[in-house]
Specification:
Helix content is 46%, strand content 18%. The chain contains 10 helices and 9 strands.
Length: 205
């Protein structure tokens, strides 16, 4: 989803790039962000911290016998933010995934001070997960720009949860339900971009 946002912003004339401060297990996500920005910056700027085990950053760092270099992530983000019109940050796991013993992805998000978009897999359990995550974001003092439902796998035909989750979340959320990304989609609906970046979309039109 982050790569889709970057592509859409760049198509609207905004010098936006994607940033994934921490990758675990591989750099495939960072490479997608690099490609979305047209290769306009080094891969090490897109993803400054790489941990090889495909685990939560704190666990992966323990296995590697080192600490995740949060200072490097901070410095790289600050440099990108100063040089680019937009930096879209992609997390590593969920809101409270630990990066260190007393430091989580939520703490890093607070330091960056950006609005948060919750991307939630549309499946059984997403209502509880999404409501808890939005509440946790607000409790940390950050704005939640909205929720986007994603279909990372092709849903089973007639799955009642998949068919009803969007309508129920639309009733219960006090932040925008931005829409859904169907399995295999490569572009964001224009309505999502209009909700997240109305000034950009108006300028494009």
């Amino acid at each position: 989803m982050t790569a889709m946002l970057v592509r859409a912003l760049r198509a609207a004339g905004v010098d936006a790039v994607g940033f994934k401060p921490i990758c675990c297990g591989g750099r495939e996500d960072a490479e997608l962000l690099l490609d979305a920005a047209g290769g306009t910056l080094p891969l090490n700027d897109v993803n400054p911290v790489l941990l090889r085990p495909a685990l939560a950053p704190y666990v992966a760092a323990m296995i590697e016998g080192r600490m995740a270099d949060v200072a490097l992530a901070r410095a790289t983000f600050a440099r990108l933010r100063a040089a680019r019109a937009g930096v879209i940050v992609e997390g590593c796991g969920g809101w409270l995934v630990p990066v260190a013993r007393d430091f989580s992805m939520a703490d890093l998000a607070v330091e960056f001070g950006l609005p948060v978009v919750v991307v939630a897999a549309n499946r059984l359990g997403v209502i509880n997960h999404t409501l808890l995550t939005v509440a946790a974001i607000k409790a940390r003092g950050l704005p939640c720009a909205g929720v986007l439902l994603n279909h990372p796998i092709l849903p089973a035909e007639g799955d009642a949860a998949v068919l009803t989750n969007a309508s129920v979340l639309g009733e219960l959320l006090d932040v925008p339900l931005l829409g859904e990304i169907a399995f295999g989609d490569e572009e964001l609906p224009a309505s999502v971009m209009g909700e997240l970046f109305p000034a950009t979309i108006r300028q494009e039109e």
